[in-house]
Amino acid sequence: MAKNNSLYTKGSEWRKWDLHIHPKTYGGSYDNFIDNINKSEAEVVGINAYSTIKGYEAIVSKHIDKIQKVLFPVIEFRMKNILLDKNDSRLKSGIRFNFHI
Q1: Per-residue pLDDT of the chain (101 residues; tens, 9 = 90+)
Q2: What is the reported pTM?
Q3: Sign of CA dihedral 8, 11, 15, 20
Q4: C-alpha angle with apex 37: 64 to 50, nearest 5 degrees?
Q5: Among 20, 18, 24, 57, which residue's Cα sits nearest to residue 39?
Q6: Could you state, in order of their start, the residue ranges of all structural domains in the chain?
């Protein structure tokens, strides 16, 4: 019988991810921000900003040695102008989403 050398002996595991954290609206210091990320139950964190990854880059470039979580850059785009009907203030097709990439 073949020996099982798999790294994944438990099968699937669910992990908490938080992919919507805006560092500029945090209001505290980056040290406190990173401490709170490290203390959170989320194992993966998305650093979110509108149309840019500059906040993510600033955190990673200056504080990478303190970060104990997996971080991803998350770019948020406002789709309101694209989705609004030109003759009406209602969204086309009843779409009610805040789109994130």
Answers
A1: 556 666 767 778 889 999 888 886 666 788 888 999 999 999 999 998 888 888 889 889 989 999 999 999 998 877 665 555 566 555 555 555 555 55
A2: 0.65
A3: positive
A4: 80
A5: 18
A6: 17-76
Both tokens of residue 89? 């203030």
Q: Three-state SS string across the chain, please?
A: CCCCCCCCCCCCCCCCEEEEECHHHCCCCHHHHHHHHHHCCCCEEEEEEECCCHHHHHHHHHHCCCCCCEEEEEEECCCHHHHECCCCCCEHHHCCCCCEC
Beta bridge partners of 71: 45
Q: What is the CA radius of gyration of the chain?
A: 19
Spatial strand order in the sheet of 70-76: 17-21, 44-50, 70-76
